[in-house]
């Protein structure tokens, strides 16, 4: 029970009435047919990566999806079907065994299939291939009234589009079928450093526009002089095996015209599996130091690219963000509007976007510090919105129904319609706070 009351955020907790282990999709349906008419809150729990109230079901039921973890790969059809409680590392294992992989994967593979699809899911290849959710062929869901339904772009499309990046508002996902593509066996990874945000953005824009790299991400890192350095991490498939002697593929066509600092560039060859599991080592380290179990008042926005060179340095110079110099990560990665197709993923106007994420760790036993950082998130949210920025849902940020209404904008009426139809008792995933 204590387990269900908390999550990776370690900021807010609440006691559900009970935690139910999902043994089958039918059992989830039975629970909802009971809870729905009684108005009892129900939320799914997958990998437990929520940062705030998103996964909580105060006075209701948390459904532990971990038991729905079957993964079946169909290489001939290039698809994979996974239970919603399977983790992305289970998906990767099954797909790579057949030489295949989902076109987009979250960076960290410890999230659940259902949880990541409910927010949309971004990863290193999102500049080219959009969201994890953009590659879903079909989902099986349980609605707020306990109905078990299958939907796809052609079958009940209103429900399909209300579920993907739909924050668990209209149905709980119990199974998803994903498209796969052939996976490279090896990749070459480039880490390129910049002192100026303008040069960094110019090069990120180049890489987001063409397809020379399969994966492009970025970070802002503190330097010893008290300033910040910008880093592009770009990855391209290559045919060779990793070795101490780099295979003779020419780096020039990939990075020759870029304006990074040549003296500090880092180039490494990895198997694709190693690359996909790149955050496992960080997780082990953070678990060992205890940081994994501390409060995480994280905050992520999508920004119009032109706002980045002034907004990002201004934010990072603020007192509230100085903890990031010591621990945590600042992500700054390119996305392209045309690749993002899931309707409920809201995004800024324009073609070139940047995902800006402040992944902070607060000290243990210091609720005042956590509160200050959550307040700082709220202030940032307001400022970024004024520049055309859009929240990536899931942050450590209290949101009102009015905030959500303006967040979804033109997509709001369809979401309300789907909610009325599929969760008329409004019991599902209340922790996001969409409804009064
Ligand atoms: C260390 C870390 C790294 C991350 N990296 C990435 C990343 O690279 N890319 C990315 O896109 N996101 C990333 N995230 C965000 C994460 O993917 C989302 O928070 C996601 O919703 C987590 O899902 P979960 O099941 O693991 O978490 P949970 O806390 O179990 O669930 C999160 C939310 O999803 C709902 N949910 C869970 N299962 C279902 C279901 N079956 N049906 C409907 N709703 C459901 C829950 O009720 C809750 O509201 C990261 C988070 C962490 C903590």
UniProtKB/TrEMBL annotation:
One GO biological process term: cytokinin metabolic process
Domain of life (superkingdom): Bacteria
Organism ancestry: Bacteria, Bacillati, Actinomycetota, Actinomycetes, Kitasatosporales
Cofactor: FAD
Name of the molecule in the record: FAD-binding protein
GO molecular function, one term: FAD binding
InterPro entries documented for this protein: Cytok_DH_C_sf, Cytokinin_DH_FAD/cytokin-bd, FAD-bd_PCMH, FAD-bd_PCMH-like_sf, FAD-bd_PCMH_sub1, FAD-bd_PCMH_sub2, FAD-linked_Oxase-like_C, FAD-linked_Oxidoreductases_BP
Domain FAD-binding PCMH-type, first and last residues per copy: 12-183
Pfam family, one: FAD_binding_4
Keywords for this protein: FAD, Flavoprotein, Oxidoreductase
Family: Belongs to the oxygen-dependent FAD-linked oxidoreductase family.
PROSITE patterns assigned: FAD_PCMH (PS51387)
